[in-house]
TrEMBL record:
Keyword Transmembrane helix part of the UniProt annotation: no
Enzyme class: oxidoreductase
Protein name: Multicopper oxidase CueO
UniProt cross-references to PANTHER family, sorted A to Z: BILIRUBIN OXIDASE (PTHR48267:SF1), CUPREDOXIN SUPERFAMILY PROTEIN (PTHR48267)
Source species, domain of life: Bacteria
Pfam families linked: Cu-oxidase_2, Cu-oxidase_3
Assembly and binders: Monomer.
Residues covered by the Plastocyanin-like domain: 79-185, 496-584
GO MF, one example: oxidoreductase activity
Reactions the enzyme catalyzes: 4 Cu(+) + O2 + 4 H(+) = 4 Cu(2+) + 2 H2O
EC number: 1.16.3.4
Amino acid sequence: MHTTAIDRRRFIQLAGLSGLAAACKPSWLYAATEGRYAREASPEFHADVEFELTAGVTSVPMMPGKHTVVWRYSGKLLKGPETALVDLPGTHLGPILFFEKGQKVRIYFRNDLPEANIVHWHGLHVPQIMDGHPMYDVKTGSGYVYEFTITNRAGTYMYHAHTHEATGRQVYNGLAGLIIVTDAEDRILDLPRGEYDQPIVLQDRSFDADNQLQYVQSMRDRHMGMLGDEMIVNGKRHFVLPVATRAYRLRLMNGSNSRIYKLAWEDGTPLTVIATDGGLLEKPVTRAFVMLAPGERVDLWADFSGRKIDTDLTMKSLPFSGAMPGHGDGRGARSGMDHGGQGGGMMGHGMMGVMHGGEGGASGMHQGMNRMNHDEQSAGGGGADGHGGMGMASNSALPLGGEYAVFKVHIMREEKETHQLPSTLTKHDRLQRADAENAQSPRKITLSMARMQWLLNGREFEMEGASPEETITMGTLQLIEFDNGYTTGQHGMGMSGMSGMAHPMHIHGQQFQIIERKIRDDLSGGYDTVSPGYVDDGWKDVVLVMPGEKVTLLKRFDHFKGLFLYHCHNLEHESMGMMRNFKVV
Ligand code: C2O
Ligand code: CU
Ligand code: CU
């Protein structure tokens, strides 16, 4: 059995050792010639916590045999509590960053990768220049000093690469980590802590025969999103969490590039959710299963009391459908196009026609992806007679919407404890539609596709571009709608009545509240296999929008002017330009 639980005490000891260096300035700082940081530290900012975060190439033992080359953020604490940085040794994941609400944080980010990089603090509300916008990416050998105050509620957040056109590949290579924020409100509750509070980062990866990571292999991977062949949890294969017979807080984060999970315990025990992206819910919510799309987090109250010692309990992803063309019934992998048949449903006409526009082979596809300026029709031609592997059906050994094990818990030992799930956790300030500046005219963001590009309101990413509809007055509450074909009956694929694709939509800055979802009847195939697993009650920064669905939300734009991204958190979509700026003025 591979046990890779996070024994925080041990890590704290490790962090403590590196903490001895706290009084010293980072060596790199001294070695650096003047101006190596694209943004320097400001002397007026008095940090409570200060650390170096270096993006570099390393190799880790992800499976037996040869080590896997990964890109990793590694940390070194310079100032502050030694518990602030907790390493996950032997993995590609960066250290877990433990922050407290109100803390002032300075991060000396250094790029030792062979290409540009920049770090984004997903879910944290920080000024534009601290947010890791791709316009700030720094070259090899350079760096960027971040300085910001933690104003977020207690919760599970993350950091990851956000480099122009490279986010998907860089995160896949390993550039991501967790952020855990605590505050007084969280501390006052009788929740499981210490070793009973476990982060669980869900990712999927494919490896070649040499144990090396394999990224996008086909047009399908690039266009629909990368799906790996196996689960990697907290950076490890076959992850097993050893537990005692008592209550735990499990902080689940979907760190996958494109994989959507439908999480459920194998024995049908319901999931008790106590927090989502932006922290604690008002009260615990119980679901038979919980959907977790890329970028989303959910904290579970998981009580293992009464379970038999030496037994296992598997967290599975259950079958669902409708999230992706060719995956209509959750059994679609390797069917249709991949076998060269005519079977792939809608793909036979719309998309595949476009995809065969070049010359049908992989290189033609790639050119096509890079930018075909003629429109879909003129590029069309091929039809469905698939060139093997170029279809939209997944080649992954773990098809999206299939049924598979995600991780296991192993009941190790008996332990009596008295934790009771609190019936109330917190009180939310409920945002009201009537208070929105645009209560009568929501800002509509349509998700679509044309010319081989996923688009937002028909537009692709522009580094510093923002349209009038994307320009927002600071200090206002905004009503925003993500429309995935609800209104047009077309969603993404350019033909009505076709099954489209689910998009997990993310907005930088403050957390939002979801106030309404609507689904189009004629496009609702599979919706019932997904929607009962939504947890929309709390503060969110990512929302899954299924084909035919429209999601309405309320979000404040306070404190900071400037450009703040919103995008699909399917990272292949993001990297291809399914991203835009809100300009707060
Ligand atoms: Cu987690 Cu702009 O992303
Ligand atoms: Cu973000
Ligand atoms: Cu998307």
